[in-house]
Amino acid sequence: MLSVFKKIVVRVRRSGLVSRIYKFAFLLAGKLPVKKNLIMFESFSGKQYSDNPRAIYEYMVDNDFQSEYELLWSIDKRSLDKFKGQDLQLVKRFSLKWLLSMARARYWIVNSRLPLWIPKPKHTSYLQTWHGTPLKKLGADINEVHMPGTTTEKYRLNFLHEAKKWDYLVSPNAYSTNIFRRAFGFNNIILEVGYPRNDFLIKHNNTQDIQSIKERLKLPKDKKIILYAPTWRDNDFYERGKYKFQLNMDLEKMKKEIGDEYIILLRMHYLVAENLELEHFKGFVYDFSNYQDIRELYLISDMLITDYSSVFFDYGILKRPILFFVYDLDEYRDTLRGFYFDLESEAPGVLVKDTESIIKEILNIQRNNFKVDSSFENFYNKFCYLESGNSSRQVVDQIITESE
What we know:
Layout: H1 2-15, H2 17-29, E1 35-42, H3 51-62, E2 70-75, E3 89-92, H4 96-104, E4 105-110, E5 125-128, H5 152-163, E6 168-171, H6 174-183, E7 189-192, H7 199-204, H8 207-216, E8 224-228, E9 237-239, E10 242-243, H9 251-258, E11 262-266, E12 285-287, H10 295-300, E13 303-306, H11 311-315, E14 322-325, H12 329-336, H13 343-346, E15 350-352, H14 355-367, H15 376-383, H16 391-401
Parallel strand pairs: 1-2, 1-4, 2-3, 4-5, 5-6, 6-7, 8-11, 8-13, 11-12, 13-14, 14-15
Antiparallel strand pairs: 9-10
Helix pairs in contact: 2-4, 3-16
């Protein structure tokens, strides 16, 4: 009987009836008196307290905006545990309180797309911070979509439709601004000021803060730290919003070869649904996939291993070594997504395709005392030049202070 009920619920959801009811209720709520002091924050569909919205929120708290504004976080009820211990005002996504708050708020500060059915009230200013410098093609620039539950044409149209609601869009550099204009079809105000989330890296890149984080996370202080942060694959999924991931790294071999001197922090993309079996590698591999904000993991890591994730643009601010483990480069570049630039010639680090090469390059980096070569400056000057530690302030000044 329970399974029959679940099937009925799923069928109703997929019919679009629920979203139509919500949209109607949202429109009605939007006619209520505006709450001019209410600011709504949301990160990765309410799954995290992280990224650019967190940085902007923390700046506002540190500068006493709470005395004048109500700062409210929209959260996915399934992620409630991740918000415990944080001194935040929370509202569960799609609850009645959430609907009344979103519809009456003066500002939305969000880092990923909202559900398409949500209408933006005229009195609301929508700041889309986005969540990365693009390597992979975005929005209307994607040639072929392999994600579940959509088609290429539908995906593009939905992306463009959502982007029309944005009043402001944060850009980390001129390169991104050019892409965002085209890929999002965005014609409103772009704040090209660097990413607020990277203010933390500028302000806390010192021995005291790094050691403090290591102590809190109970990590050994006598070993070098490698952060492995891969992205997700569009065509490898269980269902919509839940993606598979194969760890094509031979951890047994790596533990044997470098385990005496290194540990690995694993940070999966928030869309990846895998729970990897790592018990055998206890003390060598630490799974921080559910850790709230990657910024602290950047700071404590001596090097980064990634693939096509935008994490390397942010990590580049620290001017530390980066390796690219791109075992499926040809498929990902030529079939799944496509890139905006030639990773093989412009990547700020060596590209490798197997575990033996990873180990070899780690040892090369060690012999070079973890220094980056002179070519890294070209990368930094193109992608990281705006990161001064003041991006949050500049965003708040432009969308709130100057508009009041």
